[in-house]
Write a structure and sequence with these properties.
By secondary structure, the chain is α+β, with helices and mostly antiparallel strands. The chain has a nine-stranded antiparallel β-sheet. It has a seven-stranded antiparallel β-sheet with strand order 24-25-26-29-30-35-32, with no helix packed on it. A five-stranded antiparallel β-sheet has the order 10-15-22-21-18. It is globular. One of its GO terms (molecular function) is lyase activity. Residues 698-760 form the Polysaccharide lyase family 8 C-terminal domain.
Length: 805
């Protein structure tokens, strides 16, 4: 199979030099073995892994509902399965390649797990294990055995199918004869012979989520095979003992896949992925911790602590009301069986599982977080399992064990309020702003991070997801992005983006990065931050400078230097909101309702503010000559299959129709140095929106600098080159915020380009004495003005702070 660019880069992973902070870098992940015989430990591992599939039989109404949801799917798969033929299901033809056989194993796994679940619809059928064994042997003979060639997606052979097969085997238990168990395990032992390396590509070292999956598969299959060496190898793969720690999953690095030193998580070298591959990794580690707990070989306390600490640091910032935020989910946006809520549920399940074996105080901390997240999610409640037919072998849904574990763990814990937070993750070009009510995040790209990922038939409308999308998450609209948003949204007009009204660019299989390095921001405190983007379109013809300034109740959005020579009309989307099926949310323009017929475009001139009921207020900040606003309410229809045609992930062709409200600024064809300035007030009332007019002053909105005066004595600025705003001057590109606090004047700065060595800051005014400064700040002069040098080299876009008085 030919290597792609990522494969070539990763072949040399064992020799990579990385800056790392590691819990036991390169040390074995297991404690010293205890006891003369490994058989009892192997039995514990197998029994624990079986519990992860079928649960413990804990009685509750929520568990009954989860069993019923499992029954609905399993009964359908079982009734359609014909074990007298090689083709077990009429819609899944047999034959070589990875197109259909993973779904076969997923369906068989579902049937087996339902049979093994106490109280299920299939549990009372004594003949069922025989049918499952026959089907397993048919699949071994026709689809997946130790002699099968890997044709198509390597993942199916080395991770996906091994999981479903092992889960089927443990569900059957002693109803699977030893000879049959040995036979069907052979391909797993072959295709996952070494958890450290890719079988399909000689020499390729596994990293991130793929390594974690293989570690768990190796441990469970080793226990089933009675192979102590294999179990030990699976545990040792977590810290990459074989590779001297080069691909250690606990390592915080500044390059490559996995966890980064600032809390970012990267997979496929250039894709921000806490919301999928990061979850897969955490889920595998949680399961690995659980199944080996109490055995002679288990993860060491230091290794376990690292993953426990990653919960609040890496993942939790991107969870809103039980849903994982869109900008960290990569191509998985398009999966019908992996909405943001599905991803959020998988994360909660992993946290609950980690907590079950964690020592105090980590156990109480994790349990409290899980209880809060479960309480917050009311649109798709974690404990109310339903509609499992959407899942076809990708993300594993919450089921019976997850409900049992969560109810048992979180029962003593009351829900708590979400904390205020503004976090910047510059090593994956992501940020999150959480106010305790609404939250926001951005989808941007740079030379470092891709615009989108679209491979294996997925994310077919992902063209502009990295072009400056402003995602807003509201407590009253928890299902906004999960409710058929991606199949139905006009994906050429995502909120916050500036794009041409023309055919989108071709999708590229190698995740495309941009030609500019300025993408990043600065944190002032838990309630304020500034972010900037030097935007250029995929074809390089459209460019703009864009900034977002975040406050406790608003996001100020500036755009400048908007230039395009293609001749197509260019527009910026203020809003494009999913109102649901037949949504009737009222839209006001300067207090007057928009009564335009559905599907009719209306242009509003001179408006100062708009308000969309249940969503937000919008204040136009570009002065008396403010440009016209185009309004359109329309119904849009699409299907999940239209955005995901992947062989094992594709959605259904069933049409979905949702109503959208567009609010758009038109820059016309051939814009040259066009601009915009507006504020979004998520959750605001009409009165609050009206009162916000004149509240913020735009100080600059040019190709060189964008700046606004916020509430109090706080100023935000993004410098795309050397420049000055108010009394502050910088020597080069920077994101800055400054203002008076209880401790004096506070200045924060970052280098969004991540390319400079030092940024010099000159401050005019009375504050000339440094009261406190980070180690990266050097005082150059204090008279006649304050001059400091901020060493930004090696900080990878992190925030630097100094205070003066």
């Amino acid at each position: 199979m030919p290597l792609d660019r990522r494969d070539v880069l990763r072949l040399g992973a064992t020799a990579a030099t990385t800056a790392a902070v590691s819990f036991g870098l390169g040390e074995p992940a297991t404690a010293a073995p205890g006891g003369a015989s490994d058989a009892p430990d192997h039995a514990k591992i197998v029994a624990a892994y079986r519990t992860l599939q079928v649960g413990t039989g804990r009685v509750s109404s929520k568990r009954d509902r989860a069993v019923a949801a499992l029954d609905e799917v399993a009964l359908g798969y079982h009734s359609a399965m014909d074990v007298t033929r090689d083709q077990l299901w009429p819609d899944l033809p047999t034959g070589p390649g990875s197109t259909y056989f993973p779904i076969m194993y997923y369906r068989l796994r579902t049937i087996a797990v339902d049979w093994a679940t106490p109280g299920s619809a299939l549990s009372a059928r004594p003949e069922l294990p025989g049918r499952i064994v026959t089907a397993l042997n048919t699949l071994w003979r026709t689809q997946y055995n130790e002699h099968t060639a890997e044709i198509g997606n390597w993942y199916s052979y080395e991770i996906g199918v091994p999981y479903w097969l092992l889960q089927t085997v443990v569900a059957l238990g002693d109803r699977l004869p030893a000879a049959d168990r040995e036979r069907v395990l052979r391909p797993v032992l072959r295709f996952v012979a070494d958890p450290n390396r890719r079988t399909a590509t000689a020499g390729l070292v596994e990293t991130g989520a793929n390594r974690a999956d293989k570690a768990l598969i190796t441990v469970v299959s080793g226990a089933l095979a009675g192979d102590a060496g294999r179990v030990a190898a699976g545990l040792a793969a977590v810290t990459d003992a074989a590779g001297q720690g080069a691909a250690d999953l606990t390592k915080r690095s500044t390059e490559g896949d996995g966890y980064r030193t600032d809390g970012s998580f990267i997979q496929h070298e250039v894709v921000p992925y806490p919301g999928h591959y990061g979850l897969v990794l955490l889920s595998a580690i949680a399961a690995l911790t659980y199944v080996t707990d109490g055995t002679g070989t288990q993860l060491t306390p230091r290794v376990r602590a690292m993953f426990e600490q990653s919960v609040p640091d890496v993942y939790a910032p991107f969870l809103f009301a039980g849903s994982m935020m869109e900008p960290v989910r990569g191509r998985m946006l398009s999966r019908q069986g992996e909405t943001g809520h599905d991803a959020g549920h998988q994360f909660i399940a992993a946290v609950v599982l980690l907590a079950r074996t964690a020592a105090e105080p980590a156990r109480s901390r994790l349990a409290g977080l899980a209880a809060r997240w479960i309480a917050e999610g009311t649109w798709a409640p974690y404990l109310d399992v339903a509609d499992l037919v959407r899942f076809s072998g990708g993300l594993q849904p919450v089921g019976v064990p997850e409900v049992e574990f969560a109810e048992q763990l979180t029962a003593p814990w009351p829900g708590s309020a979400a904390p205020l937070a503004h976090r910047v993750f510059p090593q994956m070009d992501r940020m999150v702003h959480s106010t305790g009510g609404w939250s926001a995040s951005l989808g941007v790209a740079s030379k470092r991070i891709c615009r989108y990922e679209s491979i294996n038939g997925m994310n077919l409308h992902g063209w502009y997801t990295g072009d400056g999308v402003l995602y807003t998450f509201l407590p009253g609209q928890q299902g906004h992005y999960s409710d058929a948003y991606w199949p139905t949204i006009d994906a050429t007009l995502l909120p916050g983006t500036t794009a041409r009204d023309a055919a989108p660019p071709p999708l590229l299989s190698d995740p495309p990065r941009t030609t500019t390095s300025y993408a990043g921001g600065v944190r002032f405190d838990a309630q304020h931050g500034a972010h900037g983007l030097d935007f250029v379109s995929q074809d390089g013809a459209l460019s703009a400078r864009k900034s977002w300034f975040f406050t406790p109740d608003a996001v100020i959005c500036l755009g400048a230097a908007i230039t395009d020579a293609s001749g197509a009309p260019v527009r910026t989307a203020i809003e494009n909101r999913n109102l649901g099926e037949g949504g009737a949310a009222r839209l006001l323009a300067d207090g007057r309702p928009d009564t335009s017929p559905l599907g009719t475009t209306r242009t509003v001139t001179g408006a100062r503010w708009l308000h969309l009921a249940g969503t937000a207020g919008y204040v136009l900040l570009d002065g008396p000559g403010r440009q016209p606003v185009t309004l359109l309410r329309e119904d849009r229809t699409g299907s999940w299959l239209g955005i995901d045609t992947g062989a094992n992930t594709h959605g259904t062709p069933v049409p979905c129709t949702r109503r959208y409200q567009k609010i758009v600024l038109d820059h016309g064809p051939h814009p040259a140095d066009a601009s915009y300035a507006y504020a979004v007030l998520p959750g605001a009332s009409p009165a609050q929106t009206r009162r916000a007019c004149g509240r913020w002053a735009v100080l600059a909105n040019t190709a060189l600098v964008q700046s606004a005066h916020l509430d109090g004595q706080l100023t935000a600025a993004t410098f795309f080159a050397a420049g000055a705003v108010e009394r502050v001057r910088v020597s080069g590109p920077a994101a800055m915020m400054w203002g008076r606090t209880a401790h004096g004047w506070t200045f924060t700065l970052s280098d969004p380009t991540q390319t400079q060595d030092t940024v010099r800051v000159t401050v005019d005014g009375p504050a000339r004495r440094i009261l406190h400064a980070d180690a990266s700040v050097t005082v150059v002069a204090t008279h006649p003005r304050l001059v400091v040098d901020v060493k930004v080299a090696g900080s990878f876009g992190a925030t630097h702070t100094f205070m003066a008085g």
